[in-house]
Design goal:
It is found in: Cell membrane. Keywords: Cell membrane, Membrane, Transmembrane, Transmembrane helix. This is Putative aromatic acid exporter C-terminal domain-containing protein. InterPro entries: ArAE_1, ArAE_1_C, ArAE_1_C_sf, UPF0421. By secondary structure, the protein is mainly α. Helix 3 packs parallel to helix 5. The chain folds into 2 domains: 134 residues, no CATH class; 188 residues, Four Helix Bundle (Hemerythrin (Met), subunit A) (Up-down Bundle), CATH 1.20.120.
């Protein structure tokens, strides 16, 4: 079972009660509707809460116009409600304001119960909407930060990637370290990649929610970081596929294994990958200067190794580009130190 969001549960319960009490104190009829509006207004993030409330206010104006026309033409009966829902639902869907359908339909049924749309009745419904949505927004101004969760995800993601690179290096050194790695009690390479994928999904979710909960500051850094690691994870998956095609290991496998070990050892959020790319260029140049293989099997294995090297280059270029696109402000705010 998924762990409940206890903070949100408390907000819904307390907020609904406060909205009903406040609506009653203001003399509004159908005060329970204010509580329903509050619980429907409390979303997972601050920005989404504000967007939902804004769409409900806009759809309320549209609902007034459509219901006035419907009640005027068909009277205060079931047919008018059907006509209202027909046009109002279609309009909300067309303008992406589906959140307004249920709330405003409830408010419009109050006109049906009162059998009139006087100024006082309209003011009553507007008051219910303002009280319910207002309390929802106020309560959702407090949402616990996600930075500590994001930082934990970052460390786990980096740890997984370092382990994957280490096992890949082992496979290039001994011919083991992939799925055969189960023999030494360690998880196979495919399992590590699947665990990395799960960790990335959680990190992306936390990073998005953190961005959506910052109203006055910009925190896209964490989401961009997760996207960068996600792209690198795709590259690691391609390398894992290439490793399966290797037969006998040529001598050129050892320098690539050493490079992987070096990348694993220097793997960190603050590494700009420049030094690692220079080391990779040296390995690539050395491979190009090697005499051409004479046997077909050796040629195929050398081709696989060179493709792995190109994938590693792409892996490092992704990180280098991420660092180059950071502003000085972001580096000062999100990095506690820098590494060459």
């Amino acid at each position: 079972m998924k762990k409940p969001d206890y903070v949100k549960v408390i907000k819904i319960a307390v907020g609904a009660g406060l909205a009903i009490v406040l609506a009653e104190r203001m003399g509004l009829r159908y005060s329970a509707s204010a509580g329903v509006i509050t619980l429907l207004s409390i979303q997972d993030t601050k920005k989404e809460t504000i967007r939902v409330v804004a769409r409900r206010l806009l759809s309320f104006v549209m609902a007034l116009a459509i219901s006035a026309a419907g009640f005027s033409a068909f009277g205060y009966g079931p047919l008018a409600v059907c006509v209202f829902l027909l046009f109002f639902s279609a309009a909300c869907m067309a303008f992406g304001m589906q959140e307004g359908i249920s709330v405003n339909t409830v408010l419009m049924t109050h006109f049906l119960a009162e059998r009139s749309m006087t100024g006082a009745n309209i003011a009553n419904e507007l008051g219910l909407l303002a009280v319910g949505a207002g309390i929802g927004v106020i309560l959702n101004l407090y949402i616990p930060g996600k930075v500590h969760l994001i930082r934990m995800s970052q460390r786990r993601i980096e740890s997984h990637m370092k382990e994957i690179l280490r096992k890949m290096a082992g496979q290039l050194t001994t011919g083991k370290g992939g799925d055969a790695g189960q023999a030494d009690g360690e998880p196979p390479l495919r399992s590590l990649l699947e665990e990395l994928d799960a960790e990335l999904k959680q990190g992306e979710k936390s990073a998005y929610e953190d961005m959506e909960n910052k109203l006055l500051t910009e925190t896209r850094y964490y989401l961009r970081y997760m996207n960068m690691r996600r792209t690198q994870a795709f590259v690691l998956g391609r390398i894992e596929g290439e490793l399966k095609h290797l037969g006998e290991l040529p001598s050129q496998a050892q320098p690539i294994a050493e490079l992987m070990e070096r990348i694993s050892g220097g793997f960190h959020e603050y590494n700009n990958a420049v030094g690692l790319l220079e080391a990779l260029d040296a390995v690539k140049e050395d491979m190009r200067e090697q005499p051409l293989p004479e046997l077909r099997e050796e040629f195929e294995n050398r081709a696989v190794l060179f493709q792995i090297l190109l994938e590693l280059e792409q892996f490092l270029e992704i990180k280098k580009k991420f660092v180059e696109e950071l502003s000085a402000e972001e580096i000062g705010k999100f990095w506690r130190e820098t590494t060459c």
